[in-house]
Amino acid sequence: MWDKIMECNRSYDGLFYTAVKTTKIFCRPSCRSRKPKKQNVIFYDFIAQCEEAGYRACKRCQPEIEHCPQINLIRKATSFLVNNHQKRILLQDVAEHSGVSPFYLERLFKEELNVTPREYVENIRIDKAAYLLSNTSKTSLEICYESGFQSPSNFYKKFRAYKNCSPSDYRKSREAKVTNHEMD
């Protein structure tokens, strides 16, 4: 458990809580506050146990709230990206929509989703392009712009990076799978 709080590992949030004897505060394992000395930490399985022992909730990580306090901000930013993926999006635009600084938004995105906002929107665009390649007869150029890419060269470069093949090879492989499946 100590290793998990040192890593600020979010996957353990809700499974246990850390209480600090010297401050009388309890936190989530993922809390980003300054780490206490190991000998001052007690672990509890439930919030009620922490409160019964006389600890109060941390104001930074807010362990009494079921989800991470920044989840609404992340949801606001991701919905903006999903709804505007076909447009040219600047980090500043997403940050303004979310009500935070670009630096904070990018850092929070990386912490919560393990990708930057740019990578997130690129994933959306690549997934849309892959869907269109598999389910329509549109040209790669039409799909490039419909998916939200601003240039064909960037589209081909990003598609290859994410899918390990060109858009036309991807379409051929999907057509081959459908043909083989129909034969079975």
Automatic annotation (TrEMBL):
PROSITE patterns: HTH_ARAC_FAMILY_2 (PS01124). Its cofactor is Zn(2+). It comes from the Bacteria. Keywords: Activator, DNA-binding, Methyltransferase, Transcription, Transcription regulation, Transferase. GO terms for molecular function: methyltransferase activity. GO terms for biological process: methylation. InterPro entries: Ada-like_dom_sf, Ada_DNA_repair_Zn-bd, Homeodomain-like_sf, HTH_AraC, Me-P-triester_DNA_alkyl-Trfase. Residues 75-173 form the HTH araC/xylS-type domain. SMART domains: HTH_ARAC. Pfam families: Ada_Zn_binding (PF02805), HTH_18 (PF12833). SUPFAM superfamilies: Ada DNA repair protein, N-terminal domain (N-Ada 10) (SSF57884), Homeodomain-like (SSF46689). PANTHER family: ARAC-FAMILY TRANSCRIPTIONAL REGULATOR, HTH-TYPE TRANSCRIPTIONAL REGULATOR EXSA. This is Methylphosphotriester-DNA--protein-cysteine methyltransferase family protein. It comes from Fictibacillus norfolkensis.
